Amino acid sequence: MKESDEEEDEDADYAIYGSKIKALVQFVRRVVRADPTAKLILFSQFHRLTALMAHAFTEFGIGNVKLTGGNVISKRRAVTLFRNDPDMKVLFLSAEDSVSGLQLTEANHVVIVHPFLGASEAMARAYEMQGCARAVRAGQEREVTITRFVTRGTIEEELTARRSDLQRENGDEQAGQVEAEGPVEI
Questions:
Q1: Sequence-separated (6 or more) residues with CB below 8 Å from residue 19
Q2: Which of 26, 60, 89, 92 has the highest count of CB atoms within 10 angstroms of its CB?
Q3: In CATH, which superfamily holds the domain spanning 5-185?
Q4: Closest CA to 185 of 165, 163, 161
Q5: What confidence tens digit (pLDDT) does each residue in 113-162 have?
């Protein structure tokens, strides 16, 4: 890897992917530069976004694997590759694919790519917690960092602020069970 994100970006063409994916690529590069053993789960609500991110990360030279709603054998292969290949730094998960029960204690970072939507605030938070719980579970030997990405000046920022306010007003005990860094605004 190069010395800085700016050097990495000199040759990169992020225009087709947008500012969020650019920020995610830069974030992952910083994490891996600081800890070469780092493994990250990038969790999105939408399968199409997960596929786009995986394509971009491959283009920008970041080893990744995507867990899709395919058959059990393809899921098992993806998880095995993430667990055993030190160059596979990122596992992309989508809430549209079944992730319940999956243990990914190899990951020491979980990135919630955007605020999740649900029939209620509790349902949206439950979706997000499902992704976090893949790494934050029994058998985890490393500290896990949870990071939320929120795009400034968009509905994402409004949703995040509203959820934070609701959690404070309600004295929501569940809110503190998995602490998130950030939000990281882009």
A1: 151, 186
A2: 92
A3: P-loop containing nucleotide triphosphate hydrolases (3.40.50.300)
A4: 161
A5: 999 988 888 888 888 888 898 898 888 889 999 999 998 888 888 888 88
